[in-house]
Amino acid sequence: MDSTSKIRRSLCAFGLAAAAALPVFSVQAQSGPIKFGVTYPLTGAFAGFAKEQILGMEMAVADINAKGGVKGRQIQLVYEDTRGTPEGGVAAFRKVTEIDKVPVVLSIFTNVVTAQLPLADQLKIPMISGVEAPGLSARAQYAFAHSNRSARALNMLSQHLKSLGVKKAFTFMPDNAFGEDISKSAQEAVGAAGAQYAEARFRLGQPEYRGIVARAKEFNPDVILIATQGTADDGNVVKQLREIGVNAPIFISANLFDVKAWRDSVGTYVEGMTMVGPNVDVTDPKGKDFSTRFKAKHGRNPNYLQGTLYDMVAMYAAAIEKVGTDGTAIRDYLVGLKDFPSAMGGRFGMGPDRQTVMAINLWRVKGGELMKILPGQK
Amino acid sequence: MGASVMIWFQVLASGLSLSGYYALLSLGFALIFSTFNIFHIAHAAVFGAAGYIFFGLTRSLAWNPWAAGTVAVLGAAVFGWFIDLLLYRPILRRGGGMFSVFIASLGLTLIFEAVVLALTGGSLSVAREGALQLVEFGSVAIRLYDIAIVLIVGVLYGLAYLWVMRTRTGMAIRALSNNEGLARVVGVNTMRTRHSVFLVASALAGVAGVFTAFDSGITPTAGTQVLFIIFVAVLVGGSVNIFLGALVGSLLMGIVTAVAGFINPQWVSVCVFGILILLLIFRPRGLLA
Asked: Cα(B149)–Cα(B155) distance, rounded to whole angstroms?
């Protein structure tokens, strides 16, 4: 036998062995867990906030796995740290999709998600995020958002400000892509209320804000509006405002009452604040069940963000159960999502810009409790 | 017009409060720099360590703030002393120069930041939940906490001044600062002086770390951020009279950062380092030299 024949025979043998092994590998892959990529800030300014919200995802995974998983397979979350930065977001997205081979990704924060959008389309991997920025999910075909839309929240605040007869509003926002996006909406909302607008942006992780809060004092506003990402830095803005003698009512662009990291930072100054956003509806059986079980496990009430993250995992699980793990099929399923039950109670559907629509309300912190208020209610 | 004038008083009050933090760090940094020529970047890590010890004890273990503060300051003093004992001195003993010490100090600070980031996640850690009391002068509001800081800084400066000017250790510090070789020849105990300087300077940084963690909170890089301002404060003041120099430099930096923060926060770094560059060109030995 010449050497060419030997090589040919060896290759044939290897090919047969590989072909025989393929179904085995395939069966193993099919029987292993289905991995969901979670690209979240596990370090940096957003870490405390993000780690708290992840509890909602983990609860959803535990519930689904306890009921037998999806298509008979368990779900597993694969975490990758974005550090809350665009470059960290891109690296994390690549890691979970190319190394861990996840079929779907969950993400958060405008600056991170904006950088990840092209990758989602390029790799055909659906990505649901909690971003609130208007129109962000519409920029990529595989991007979805399940969140409190900032434009709707600000619109509701605008009506409230108008009813209250507010003449001057000073807005604080983080000095990042979120702040950049929300600045225009905030100006429009305050303008629509017929009030004079001024703003200042604070840099996350640099806790000395007395310079910018002095600007708010100089402006002498009727209300302070904080466009928030839920970081502990908000707490410093609030404390330094109050401790420089600014006593105007504070309005928060999201309902952060039950966000522990945020509450710890704001401390006793939370009293009297007005917030706008969704909340877990304990009058609804599903919302009550979620709230009761969460409280039993973690010793405190869940916040709406934990509810939305629970929903995101449930959406992916429902999609994979129905259409499998193909990215395009999951995307098509999510685009047509209607009347989906929320862990927070009630139901929601996917909007035309691939952003869900959920009920929002105005809330006031009174006597340490969160009370629902109507627009214009003092 | 009246309101605008008052707002400048408000900004000035913020600047004075910031000066208190800077003054504590500056004095410790200047003591080490002027006595041993060590550019002690790890002073930032000492500051941060005190802040995190205080935060952990008060928030996680619900300690009384005074007890937690005392432990944190003592912890900072020991940490700073260990940095000299286990890092700087071995390098110098084996023939490494001041540049090697500088690099080691920088490396230790980066390690500290990375470890704290891994342990805490890096979010802002604020020890207090409650409100602080204010006193108001017209429309200018000043926190009693800030007034207390200024008083404490005054007392600590006074004690440090007496220590340097009226004790044998202080005499040794001045001798080493003026001429280390000659000081050794006349029998100054350099090791004991070294221990004392690092312990006291680090304790001062510890006090600043505790105040910061209690009030505005601390992050893994908080020490490095403030230390850049401290460098400039010390260089502005010069090393001829470290007490007056650190005080004047800190006061200037406190006011500059508060005013720049009011006008436009993006300009804080430009102002601080602009002053540094101008100073290095026109008064390289400091304003008071």
From this structure: 10
Residue in A214, A232, A243 closest to B217 by CB: A232
Residues A98 and A48 in one domain: yes
Residue B9 contacts residue B139 (beta carbons within 8 Å): no
Residue A197: CA count within 13 A, CB half-sphere: 19
User: How far is B156 from B165, CA to CA, in rounded Å?
Assistant: 14
Say if A120 falls within a structural domain: yes
Tell me, yes or no, whether A71 and A58 share the same domain. Answer: yes
The answer to whether residue A125 sits within a structural domain is: yes
**What are φ and ψ of residue A179, in 5° steps?**
-60, -40
b vs e for A216-233, b when ≥16 Cβ sit within 10 Å of the residue's Cβ?
A: bbbbebbbbbbbbbbbbb
Residues A97-140: tens digit of each pLDDT: 999 999 999 999 988 999 999 999 999 999 999 988 777 888 99
Question: Does residue A367 sit within a domain?
Answer: no
A338 in any annotated domain: yes
Residue A184: domain span:
150-253
Of B3, B134, B219, the CB nearest to A218: B3
Write out pLDDT tens, residues A303-348: 999 999 999 999 999 999 999 999 999 999 999 999 999 999 999 9
Q: How far apart are alpha carbons B148 and B17 in whole angstroms?
A: 10
Q: How many domains does chain A have?
A: 2
Q: Which two tokens stand for residue B103?
A: 């690099």
User: Does A305 lie in the same domain as A346?
Assistant: yes
Statement to judge: residues A247 and A289 lie in one domain? no
Looking at A253, A272, A304, the residue that finishes a domain is A253
Whether ipTM tops 0.90, in short, is no
The first and second tokens of residue A375, run together, are: 């627009």
In the CATH hierarchy, which fold is given to the domain comprising B2-282?
A: ABC transporter involved in vitamin B12 uptake, BtuC (1.10.3470)
Q: Are B214 and B127 in contact (CB under 8 A)?
A: yes
- Sign of the four-CA dihedral A323, A329, A334, A338: negative
Decide if A207 touches B, using CB distance below 8 A: yes
**Residues of A in Cβ contact (< 8 Å) with B136:** 245
Is B177 touching A (CB cutoff 8 A)? no
Residues of B in contact with A242 (CB under 8 A): 131
B194 falls in which pLDDT band (50, 70, 90)?
Answer: very high
Does A272 contact B at CB distance below 8 Å?
no
Give the CATH number for residue A227: 3.40.50.2300
| Structural tokens at position A74 | 């368990």
